[in-house]
Amino acid sequence: MNTFKLTPTITEYPTCSSFFQNFDFDKDDLLFISNTIYSKYFKGHTRDATILFRGDYGSGEPTDEMVEQIYQEIKDLPYKRVIAIGGGTILDTAKLFCLKTFSPVLDLFDHKIQPIKDKEFIAIPTTCGTGSEVTNISILELISRQTKLGLAHDALYPDATILIPELLEELPFSVFATSSIDALIHALESYLSPKATDFSRLYSVEATKLILSGYMQIKKVGPGTRIPLLHSFLIASTYAGIAFGNAGTGAVHAMSYPFGANYHVPHGEANYIMFSEVFKKYQELSPDGDIAKLNEIIADTIDCSPSEVYSELDDLLSLLIEKKPLCEYGVSQSDLLSFTENVMTKQNRLMANCYVPLRDDMIYSIYDNLFNTLYRNH
Q: What pTM value is reported for the model?
């Protein structure tokens, strides 16, 4: 028996000015935001809120060390509401600030600390990929363990989600590409998850169609055409977040985590590297199940035959990000064994959502193919 849950209240505003007309910051607010977004859109509108700037705590994706550093600064602050404005790093990190106890963060992720929410959380995404604005999941890079790990608990659900497409207009094309590809893979993996329901698949399918249709427009007209499509991409990202928040993601995400964490590859790019080889393995193992229905949906959207969907998707996505072999990121052959071990021992939450079960030799062969085959073809 699988269930479907949608927790946050979702509100849309076309611009920041319309948002400010309907929202009040106050002294009990803790605002986590990037310097750039604050300076361009929010400066002068946050009243007496306490502001944490993402850039003051290093760069890259969220880590346990960053969370501990912020904890030391805010542990004695009497804030009652957390407002996170940003991409996955900001949203995933800020979810933890709403908990009664979130340090030591490793104990939290090891389930030695029970997550208890005692502050309100408002999520405002500035990218079109994370889906974190509607999920109960926080993902951190655990530096001492050289991997990423997700914590899923209902205490991490936002209380309110606010969508403002204007905030995406400053996204560099590379960030737009990696984030929207991440959303696409959220949609595709959640569709195939054993935990998927008729309700979650509605969101998976609509997200897939919106994103791929947008990519086809970019292919036809060029990168600049994404700007009028940002509202659609933002909605698609949230749809995909709802889908995978209920059904989960699988082997693509599980395999991307040790690779991305060890070689500091953006999350969406790491997922993109893994995607087609994982889905080809699914296709090989169970070609007549739900993957056949999904392939039909993809084929209809990008105008190809179902037998060509993965090669056509690789070609389409390569217009956004160059697909490189693992060796070009510095990965060594010996890394593939440690990656495989990590997937099979540390990513059980994700591997439980695979379309069909994958053994360790299958995981290794996918990594090996990405390392060797692409290298020979490069």
A: 0.94
